[in-house]
Amino acid sequence: MVVNPREAATLEPQTSAPPLLETAGAPIRQTSLWRDAYRRYLRNKGAVAAAVLFGIIVLYCFLIPGFWFIPGIWTTLFDIDPNQVNFLETYLPPSLEHPFGTDQFGRDLFTRVAKGGQVSIGIGFAATIAILVIGVTYGSISGFIGGKLDNAMMRFLDALYGLPYLPFAILALAVIGTVSFWTMVVALTIASWFTAARIVRGQVITLKENDYVRAAHAVGARWHRVLTRHILPNTLGVLVIAVFLELPAVVLGEAFLSFIGLGINPPDASWGSLASEGRQSYQTHPLELWIPCIFIATLVLCANFIADGLRDALDPRTRET
Amino acid sequence: MAAFIIRRVVWTIPVILLVIFMIFMMMRQIEGNPFRRTERAVPPQVEANLERKFNLDEPVYMQYLLYVKGVFTFDLGPSLTQTDRSVTDIVKEHFPRSLKLGLLAFMWAILFGIPAGVIAALRPNTLYDYILMLFSNIGFALPAFFVATLFIYYFAVKASLVPTNGWPLGFWEVDSRVLLPSLALALYPMAYFARLVRGTMLETMQQDYVRTARAKGLRWKSIVTRHVFRNSLIPVVTATAPLFGLVITGTFVIEVIFSIPGIGRYFINSVSARDYSVVMGITVLTSLVVIFLNLVVDIAYGFLDPRTRTSR
């Protein structure tokens, strides 16, 4: 039952070797699944464009204002501090020095949006990775051991599905007490790891029935070897897709929380809190809302396209529909 | 069928208990006692009375059991900040408004999303398909708060087609004020339905029974309506429960933007005001709605697809 957009990641397991697209008579060149998938991905123009755009956004966010101890291109060039308040330069229109203009405190939006992007994308990736780590652990224990334990663990997950995503995240934030980058990651992870666990468990169960897994058991491989050498590597395809399906959900969730004021707070910025600031002056300065929202939308759209492209590339059989 | 329904209904009881338990335990972890925040020293007798009022003098498991009993008897306890209102009163007053908003949004989603998916599936890889799927992708990606703000600005402020805010308070009352919030909220489920219906219909069209129907000379129109469309609706029914949960959550931000006095806005205010019994009550209520919808969907699924009755 596909009940969740994120669950659409479930793939047919890679049971057979990828087709060799060589002309007859030519020496057969070894081709791995990943190289083959890479080639197929490159043929999908929409997915390639999405990946390039995604890369550009990430580079913009991390290079323009600088990250950690790396100085930023734009901040060094124009000597701009994204948190510097300057009441003489409020609401400047876009110019070379301030490509997106400035906000009500005279802060440069070009670097501020990039700083906010670091937070949004950072929370997105950190939470996604945490979700997948928990999901792989829970799902592979449940799927690999099977039997009563599997049943109990899945029933527990079914029950957790009754918890609504964002109220649960808000509750988790209230329990943690403070709102910061890492507490947002924890709250969003707690509220949304269930789907990944289900996907991995389903994948492990189908892989477990494969002949090569039986063969490994038959020649006396220990369970941990079977799990780590034969089963988990084959779930990698699904996990790579799952990254790009979870990411939009987390980014939108973070934006939502910050927008209603329960997430990242000023003077720190995320795309959600920037949009929230922008909404208040929308009538006079619409750019302040448009820019962070366009960034959120583009990132989500690109991630969806990348996920679709990866699915087609890793499992050519789904190409038909 | 009866046995299946009974089994499914009985199964929701431990689910409800577990969900309440998790929410309850989380609330217990929150630091601080709401009565000790005032600067004045509270006399010990007053504190003891307050603790008795909120059952805080009982051991934790009794508190949990009392809370569960309260949930089943529609008594969610008193509010911490509004001394004259109980959580049940607050829920009774605000929840129907959010429910109306959610149902209206869902109605739009079904009304526009499903036909869009059908049209796209009947003409795959044509201009219609591309345009509809482009809209669907945009609907997926745009945050609801952005769409809502644009709606207010362009339709309400600039064009003055509808009032900017306000909400008809009666559950059955509907006027032009419901239009913008419900449409803004409907965007995501609409896009979701369109995509889902397109995908499942294209998949169903490749099934053998559709080929058989074509081979025996049935008209394409009747194949689509009787074989393809009906079978494609099953995943739509399944998607309904989690999607409605998302819509109910989505009302939170829509209510803030459109100043609708619904449960979501109240929830956010309660989080800021640290009115934990209200926060807990609303979270439990939302969970119950999702659990109930899952139950309904599973039973509907049992009717639509006989195979599911035997499993589980």
Strand order of the largest sheet of chain A: 1-2
What share of the residues of chain B lie within helices?
over 70%
* Cα Rg of chain B: 24 Å
Helix segment tally of chain B: 12
| Element order of chain A: H for helix, E for strand | HHEEHHHHHHHHHH
The end-to-end distance of chain B, rounded to whole angstroms, is: 13 Å
**Which regions of chain A have little confidence, pLDDT < 50, spanning 5+ residues?**
11-16
**Bulk shape of chain B:** flat
Provide the residue-averaged pLDDT of chain A: 83
Query: What series of H and E elements makes up the topology of chain B?
Result: HHHHHHHHHHHH
Query: Which sheet architecture does the biggest sheet of chain B show?
Result: none
Strand content of chain A: under 5%
Structural class computed from helices and strand pairing of chain A? mainly alpha
Distance between the ends of chain A: 18 Å
Bin the helical content of chain A. Answer: 55-70%
Annotate the secondary structure layout.
The complex is a heterodimer of chains A (321) and B (312).
Chain A: H1 33-43, H2 45-63, E1 66-67, E2 70-71, H3 73-78, H4 109-145, H5 147-160, H6 165-176, H7 181-192, H8 194-208, H9 211-218, H10 223-259, H11 271-280, H12 287-314
Antiparallel strand pairs in A: 1-2
Helix pairs in contact in A: 1-12, 2-4, 2-12, 4-5, 4-7, 4-8, 4-10, 4-11, 6-7, 8-10, 9-10, 10-11, 10-12, 11-12
Chain B: H1 2-29, H2 44-53, H3 60-72, H4 87-122, H5 127-141, H6 144-158, H7 179-205, H8 208-215, H9 220-258, H10 263-273, H11 276-304, H12 307-310
